[in-house]
Input
Amino acid sequence: MIRKIAVLTSGGDAPGMNAALRACIRAGLYYGKDMYVVYDGFRGLVEGNIIQVNKDFTQDIINRGGTIIRSARLPEFANPDVSEKAAQQLKDFEIDALIGIGGDGTYKGLELLDKAGIVTIGIPGTIDNDVGSTDETIGFSTALNTICDCVDKLKDTSGSHQRCTLIEVMGRDCGDLAMFAALAEGAEGVICVEHPLKEDALFRKLRKMKAQNKSHAIIIISENLLDIKELAKKIALETGFDTRTEVLGRLQRGGSPDAHDRILAARLSARAIDLLTEKDPTSRVVGIKNNMIVDYPIAEATKMKHVHTRGLRALIDMLQ
Ligand code: F6P
Output
């Protein structure tokens, strides 16, 4: 039986991580478990930066952005010596299970700890929405709303100057933030892994818009794909549109989680704790599929690929 549970956050912080932390701690205490937090992600775990917490720790954190227990990126964790040291820290504290809130990288770390004899549970928390074992990750909705807020503002100035504005959004290798933002904003174009740049078609469309004296054009582009400044120069040259670029960057990760992310965090965390109250718990991840909370063995989940909705791409093609 699991008696002591620790929670950490890892990878890029995401709005709603604190709400998930709160829900894990409260649900764990409700079931009579001793609850711990690990500061600074897997790095803090290796260093033994672990404390026991009570309900007071969770006060007024449900609406806070970022992660109050901080996060870190630790590529060295893939080295078995490092992950075994982390597992030993948990054993020294007599902690039986670890919940990790993060993305794919976090799940890989949890899988290594599972191999070292620790029961682990993964909760998907990243703005990228790129985790295969869930339709949605905690933080995606808030980041999307932040992007929309920025694009709304950029539209005002873009329209005032009859400009074409290229807006780069995050997502690592996943186009969900770009595609959903394009759909929500009625953007004139989207460029992402799932929707690659077709220069000729884009220039044709922008030339036509220019000829029709349209007020402006908004193109949303995923990070890591192309040099948006170079593309802006080409667009200006080929279409006559005065063109500007904006990189939204890490402001997409900040801010108070929206209600959707807080509730998703509560539902996923409750299942995570439920799994740890079972008689013989095993290492799993939780997720949401078709609005149902689901769970999978962690070794299976780390091999799952995020499936992009065909319908979404068709919708974008139709509406652009
Ligand atoms: O995974 C979240 C994310 O914001 C990605 O969208 C982005 O590529 C990456 O993190 C940036 O990470 P960092 O802040 O560590 O440079």
In short: The radius of gyration is 22 Å. The domain at 4-139+257-301 is CATH 3.40.50.450 (Rossmann fold). The pocket of 6-O-phosphono-beta-D-fructofuranose is lined by residues 11-12, 73, 103, 126-128, 170-172, 223, 250, 253 (CB under 6 Å).
